[in-house]
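Annual report, structural modelling task.

Input specification for the zinc ion complex:
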Amino acid sequence: MDVAQKNREAVSNILFDAFSKVYGAFRSVNVFLISDPPDPKQWGEDFTHVYIFADDQPVDYLGIATFQQGVVTDRAIIRIDQVFYASYHANLDANQLSNLIANAIAHEIGHTLGLDHSALTTDVMHDGLDHTVHSLMPPSFHEKQISMMNFAIRKLGA
Ligand SMILES: [Zn+2]
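The model returned the following structure:
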């Protein structure tokens, strides 16, 4: 097995791990995550797109999202290359890296489900994810955040 092949496997294992952590964080939220485009007849524009991509252009964020408090909005972007870059400089191991990726994704999805920033540094919704903090555990939302997200989602169907 060559190095590139080995790296690809390692990266895809880390991403797999990160996505299962994201699923875990949204377990109590009335959303489902799919990789196929939603049926426009069923959903219209009432859904959130999460784009995960890498670019050559350096940026100073791990992700960005549209946000309106208590309202579902439609767009989040995760700069996976920036997450890897931060992780590389912090010497994170594979598990810490997948935690950081999962926290970045969950944070941006949180915004699109109407969540504002939290002042608590350890919170997944803290402004500016700290790789020394948010690599230590998978993302999780507290009860109030979960009910706020469910409230925003229910308003969509109303
Ligand atoms: Zn944010």
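The pocket of zinc ion is lined by residues 107, 111, 117, 127 (CB under 6 Å).
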